[in-house]
Amino acid sequence: MSITDTPNAPVNTSYAQAPARTVDVGDVTYTYRELGPKGGIPVVFFVHLAANLDNWDPRIVDPIAKDHHVITFDNRGVGASSGDVPDTVEAMADDAYTFIRALGFDKIDVFSFSLGGMIAQALVAKHPELVRKLILTGTGPAGGTDIDKVAGTTYFDILRAALTRSDPKEFLFFNRNATGKPAAKAFVKRLQERTVDRDTPVTAKAFQTQLKAIKKWGRSAPADLSKLTQPTLIANGDNDRMVPSVLSEDLHRRIAGSELIIYPDSGHGGIFQFHDRFAPIAVEFLAR
């Protein structure tokens, strides 16, 4: 195992400036970025379908990084990380565990979105001792209603976006109305704030394999979420077309003591549309 690092670097709390690093485990090189003050329990971010390090909203990451060591990473076969993407969520969770342990952590907080939230659930189920607190956004449980239809929705919106020369996330994450359209444009613009050392795009093969894994997750037996003892914060928009909003309510019912926020007039990317309201809640939740 080897880690590339820069000794004595000043504390950086801007995601746009976060250095890219790598850690080698066996024959896989994991690419990650870190920012915020070191020490304490790190917050590890689990990203969504077809996403790499450049897909995290700096308006969510930066407020958390003010007081927390934040790590975002490309799982195996994603972005600049080497290897092949596994075709199950559980195997993705195994890779995430390998990455986290390679960095030397035995306790983390998790911030997850969409597919990342599915991976996070699988990770907690297998390694409950690893996770202190859990943030699940825009996601759903194994066996959740209509999760297996994500591929159809995704391909439809990719086509719609291509016809208008837009970013597919504008269709997949936001309502196509007077509130959603400007929020979508603003979100996509924020993702461009990092201008140097940007990540490698996700390949078509990796994307298709992730979709296969999501379909299997949607068609698998429901997990026993009553076993989760971690403090859990759940959030979504009220009109999520990718991972139906009712699944956030389902998670809330099944995870004892969890907190639920549903943002009005927003879709899958509700936390990004309402970043100014959600980021402080996430910060407060992690600081408790």
TrEMBL record:
Q: Which UniProt keywords apply?
A: Hydrolase
Presence of the UniProt keyword Mitochondrion in the record = no
MF terms (GO), sorted A to Z: hydrolase activity
Q: Looking at the keywords, is Magnesium present?
A: no
**AB hydrolase-1 domain segment(s):** 43-272
- Name the record gives this protein: Alpha/beta hydrolase
